[in-house]
Specification:
The structure is a single chain. The protein is of the alpha/beta class and 202 residues long. It has five helices and ten strands. The protein has an eight-stranded mixed sheet, sandwiched between helices. The chain is globular. The protein starts with a strand and ends with a strand.
């Protein structure tokens, strides 16, 4: 059955980037191993793909293969220029925004990006597009909104042994309601610990 999943690399004290969107050492684990993970070319992605440790590569390959659609907010869309019209994972991207970019269809004709005003509608349409596969939601403000709205089934945290002290929080600035999680599935890798929590029904 399709699941809505928040997934992101995060510092041990809960930050996904600094206040300037810098990730510092958070992404080092993507490049410290022997396994090749190809990615669609774009100026915001490594030209030769990722090379994580074996445990990380196996987990990411399985996770990415099972994602059918991705959500993103307008801020991330602007920061990445919509990945140049090519989804990072999945076959469709649903951008939650009140400001659709007017020139997008001309710059990227046929790109599978859809601009939706409301989060709940975006999740519903993403689930439909994903079919039996999962829907990926980024951590940060949009992920926090999705948890508060009861739309998330699983949280994947890729915890890096570093303390940021300040920055952009995993759930943004939202006050998350008390939510019980199942015991995590844990994959220990090189300079990152992958933890996956299913949310218990409220």
């Amino acid at each position: 059955m399709s699941k809505v999943i928040i997934g992101a690399t995060v510092s041990a004290d809960g930050f996904i980037a600094d206040r300037n969107d810098g990730v510092g050492p958070l992404f080092d684990w993507y490049f410290n191993g022997p396994r090749e993970l190809p990615v669609a070319p774009h100026r915001y992605r490594p030209k030769d793909g990722y090379r994580p440790a074996a445990a990380s590569a196996d987990l990411l390959r399985d996770t990415w293969a099972n994602i059918g659609a991705t959500l993103m907010g307008r801020r991330l869309f602007d920061l990445t220029d919509g990945w140049g019209g090519r989804p990072a994972v999945g076959d469709h991207v649903f951008v939650v925004t009140h400001r659709s970019p007017g020139d997008w269809p001309d710059r990227h004709p046929g790109a599978p990006f859809h601009f939706i005003t409301g989060l709940e509608e975006a999740v519903a349409r993403a689930r439909q597009a994903a079919g039996h596969r999962d829907v990926s939601v980024p951590a940060g403000d949009l992920g926090g909104q999705a948890v508060c709205a009861g739309l998330v089934d699983r949280i994947d945290m890729y915890v890096v042994p570093v303390l940021f002290g300040d920055g952009i929080r995993f759930f943004g600035e939202h006050k998350i309601p008390t939510t019980l999680l199942d015991d995590p599935r844990v994959v220990q890798s090189d300079r990152v610990t992958h933890m996956s929590y299913d949310l218990r029904a409220r």
